[in-house]
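Quick one, probably user error.
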């Protein structure tokens, strides 16, 4: 077991089945017999899905085993969603990995007991789903995961070899009765397909694992090419320049888009949606605002650029203006006319997916703290706002400034605006909504009113700030 990857401890995903029991016992033995590994912390986690009548028995078995081996165990119960359109297998896997991710310490290794037969099953399932190189590369032996690493140290061993080890060491394990239920795809492959393959090609699993290794290298090479391409395609803020994307071959366009979407935190679209992003968005009318949406997110086009949004961000963009006003602020910070006492807290947290406003002390900042009101009002545009961004200049319409700054239209109504604290309360607009009765101080982190700006000739000094908005969508 190599140690070139940073290591702060081992955390074993313990199902109670023979594979994970052998893995845990091997790690205990390794710590006892090898001085090199003696001080590496070891703990186990059992995910309790609650899907089978024997689930409580499996958890008890894991507790007994860990007590005998002297390994700390955490049993984490999860709820597996049903009726979402996804298979029960997929939902259980999603819930399991979410549980395994939570609480993983920095540089801790999450160790799973996947073996070479699992690898073959995964490759066959991916093949039948029409997967590309990334899917057919199946399970890597090592991958970044949460704050640490996901390791599969048993990938070179077969299920039969693990059974022999378990019996030789007289280990006790549990059998999951759902493993014989052929309604589940993996079980069907295991029971019906693999015996036929092995009858003709006994080394099928090891040969497939070798192919997975080759495909894994090809995947890494494609990712390196994609990273280089995306670095040259993206404008500040991460939007893709369509004119630059068009300069690539079609295969490199698709490769770059996959990398870009993954890096932006989106779930990968299927082939049809990916092709719609590549073709339809660039071919739409110049004055159109096309988008492609799927369950994992959406991509929009504006002024020759592509913008990607996660599913949660997409939902926030779909809010009507009055709903967005409520969603801008934290639920605990209602009513919507929220005051920011920036001297007490330099951070102002907006609602989920809207980011954080922050006043950062900066000797070169453009905001004079002495001129800034002690409290600021945070809200959204109501229409008709004006701001004076140059001391000797006129007040200019915020709408005009945002259009000239190429702020995407879906963002213009959702920008957080900062006003001076209302001196005489608040007024109401034609719809009866409360509005600040004071001057506009800032529009997001894009424009700052001249009334609070530092004089151009002023030297760097303390008491100066810059406004940052972390988490903007573009």
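Nope, works fine. Designed sequence:
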């Amino acid at each position: 077991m190599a140690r070139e990857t940073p290591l702060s401890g081992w955390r074993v995903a313990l199902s109670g089945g023979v594979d994970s029991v052998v893995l845990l016992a091997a790690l205990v033995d390794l710590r006892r017999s090898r001085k090199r590994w003696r001080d590496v912390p070891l703990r186990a986690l059992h995910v309790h899905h609650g899907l089978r009548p024997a689930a409580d028995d499996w958890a008890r078995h894991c507790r007994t085993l860990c007590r005998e081996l002297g390994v700390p165990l955490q049993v984490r119960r999860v709820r597996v969603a049903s009726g979402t359109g996804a298979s029960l297998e997929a939902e259980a896997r999603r819930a399991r990995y979410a549980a395994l991710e939570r609480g993983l310490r920095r540089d801790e290794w999450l160790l799973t007991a996947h073996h070479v037969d699992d690898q073959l099953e995964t490759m066959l399932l991916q093949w039948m789903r029409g997967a590309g190189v990334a899917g057919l590369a199946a399970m890597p032996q090592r991958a970044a995961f949460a704050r640490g690493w996901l390791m599969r140290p048993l990938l070179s061993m077969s299920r039969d070899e693990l059974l022999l080890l378990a019996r030789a060491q007289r280990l006790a394990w549990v059998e999951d009765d759902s493993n014989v239920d052929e309604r589940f795809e993996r079980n069907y492959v295991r029971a019906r397909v693999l015996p036929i393959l092995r009858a003709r090609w006994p080394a099928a699993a090891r040969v497939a694992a070798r192919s997975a290794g080759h495909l894994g290298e090809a995947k890494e090479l494609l990712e390196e090419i994609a990273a280089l391409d995306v670095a040259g395609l993206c404008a500040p803020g991460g939007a893709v320049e369509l004119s630059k994307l068009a300069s690539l071959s079609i295969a490199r366009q698709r490769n770059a888009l996959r990398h870009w979407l993954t890096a932006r935190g989106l779930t990968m679209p299927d082939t049809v949606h990916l092709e719609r992003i590549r073709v339809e968005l660039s071919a739409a009318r110049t004055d159109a605002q096309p988008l492609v949406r799927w369950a994992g997110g959406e991509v929009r086009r504006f002024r020759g650029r592509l913008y990607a949004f996660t599913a949660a961000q997409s939902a926030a963009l779909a809010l009507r203006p009055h709903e967005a006003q409520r969603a801008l602020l934290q639920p605990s910070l209602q009513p919507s006319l929220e005051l920011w006492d920036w001297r007490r807290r330099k951070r102002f947290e907006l609602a989920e997916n809207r980011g954080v406003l922050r006043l950062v002390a900066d000797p070169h900042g453009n905001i004079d703290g002495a001129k800034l009101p002690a409290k600021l009002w945070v809200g959204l545009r109501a229409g008709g706002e004006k701001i004076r961004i140059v001391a000797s200049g006129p007040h200019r319409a915020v709408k005009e400034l945002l259009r000239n700054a190429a702020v995407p239209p879906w963002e213009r109504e959702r920008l957080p605006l900062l006003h001076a604290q209302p001196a005489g309360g608040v007024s109401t607009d034609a719809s009866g909504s409360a509005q600040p009765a004071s001057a506009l101080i800032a529009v997001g982190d894009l424009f700052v009113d001249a009334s609070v700006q530092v004089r151009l000739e002023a030297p760097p000094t303390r008491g100066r700030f810059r406004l940052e908005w972390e988490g903007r969508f573009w």
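The two ends are 43 Å apart (CA to CA).
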